[in-house]
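Look over this record as teaching material.
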Amino acid sequence: MSLHFTVQEFESRENKVIKSMNEKNLDALLLFRQESMYWLTGYDTFGYVFFQCLVLTSLGDKILLTRVPDLRQAQNTSNIKDIRIWVDKDNSNPAEELKSILVELNLENKNLGVEYESYGLTGKNAMMLNESLNKFANLQDESFLITKHRLVKSNQEIVYIKKAAKLADKALEEAWKLSHPGEHESKILASMQGSILAGGGDYPGNEFIIGSGKNALLCRYFSGRRKLDLIDQLTLEFAGVYRHYHSALMRTIPIGKAKKEHIDMHKICFESLKACESKLREGNTAGDIFEEHRKIVDNTKYKTARLNACGYSLGTTFSPNWMDWPMLFKDNPINIKKNQVFFLHMILMDTNSQTAMNLGETYIVNKNSCKRLGSLTLDLVVG
């Protein structure tokens, strides 16, 4: 069995969740988020693209309902003892099989929390679930019950995140080494991802973002590669990953020569990043951090080039993205606490001059400050 945490750590997590369930008068949780299953039991799979549910009762019972391909996956990667299988067939309804499990657990007419906010529960499956459990039990949305517990990291989780940060630094060093006129984006991307895998890391929750020329202004991965021109710009957003824990970095690299816009925008990003750092500590809110970013950028001519968020939490996440809850946006009231991990990204995409400049780093929150996990320079590096 490939468990990445101690028995005591898993027991502590389960006890915290059950305590929260009791406070909310919940008799059971229906878990659909893969992050929740991994954090709670070690269960590691991408089988959540099909109907799959982990039932956790307030008494500590755990039953996983999944498909045959994930039987051994659960046996080999988790501490789940009771694994049930639903069979693929025309017009199959695994929600009815889940209902049978709930009957077995004496949960009829009880209060059940459901992780509706989940890539593991499609709209169609959610309708099927609601229809099957209509008048059977009292359902309430508890999408963030476990997510809120995951926000504050344990000491062992921090060890993994720090390993992920070292892998991210290696990837950035590879990018700087190769990002020069005439080099192909494909080679840069392959070298970055290869360095992480060679270092014992994992695939990221979403694709690395890479774009040059006018596509350096894009914030998402897209298909297609090109060679770098003599004068160009290259935007990279990526993450080192270890045991599914992420540590992200973001940079825009001027190629050949930095334009005046690159230099000016980098100065703004650097100042904004430092201001956000100063607020990333206990006693402040996620909204307080974004406000620092907003004040600095909006006092420049690049006000329309910024985004409406300047970062988000990081941790253990699965495809399709590595962004975790919460995000750093206007007036977000979520409190910042010790041992939370955040990716701060200062993103400026100026459509008028077709210039990109981005600076992003991952931090862990301490009591009176925060610590940057990356160790490389924040200076503007020209390729």
In short: The chain has two domains: 7-150, 152-372.
